[in-house]
Specification:
By secondary structure, this protein is α+β, with helices and mostly antiparallel strands. Among the domains are: 40 residues; 68 residues, no CATH class. Strands 1-4-5-6 form a four-stranded antiparallel beta sheet. Strand 5 and strand 6 form a beta hairpin. The longest helix has 36 residues. It starts with a helix and ends in an 11-residue tail after the last strand.
């Protein structure tokens, strides 16, 4: 039995009409499967209400390394690093003349202080000449300095 072109076309139309609801059903089913997966993904700026650092649940960690040690107060009055301590008042005067660019006769017996050194003020002779005694005898003993040593320690 041979079918005519009209019958063939009519059969094709019936298949197309029956496949429409089937195609729509497959599309709806795939949307139902995919939508829950999209609902579970959070945007990058959202933490999905999960807190990994909830207070009370995780123990506080101490800072690594050794604990901080408070510095002991520095002696006052003191000669700071780089100050000059001369044996005599004349040595300090010759050092000042040399620093001004004048020629000086004889050696100058002065030393540069290498570390902060506590001193006792014996007497002052003007603002730039002070006779001091170091608290540590090995640090220089008695001498003269041009360092400014105010009566009260500087406040920070």
């Amino acid at each position: 039995m041979k079918l005519s072109n009209c019958e063939i076309n009519r059969a094709k139309r019936r298949r197309r009409a029956n496949s429409g609801p089937l195609l729509a059903g497959a599309l709806a089913l795939s949307c139902l499967v995919v939508m829950p997966a999209f609902a579970q993904t959070a945007p990058p700026d959202d933490d999905s209400h999960v807190q990994f650092d909830a207070p009370g649940f995780l123990p506080k960690k101490g800072r690594p390394g050794l604990p901080d040690v408070k510095a002991s107060p520095l002696a006052w009055p003191r000669l700071d690093r780089g100050s000059v301590l001369c044996r005599s008042e004349d040595d300090l005067s010759r050092l000042a003349a040399r620093r001004r660019g004048q020629s000086v006769d004889g050696p100058i017996d002065c030393q540069i202080v290498r570390a902060a050194t506590g001193v006792s003020i014996l007497r002052r002779q003007g603002p730039g000449m002070t006779e001091v005694q170091t608290n540590d005898p090995s640090a220089g003993g008695t001498g003269w300095t041009d360092a400014w040593l105010p009566e009260k320690p500087p406040s920070h």
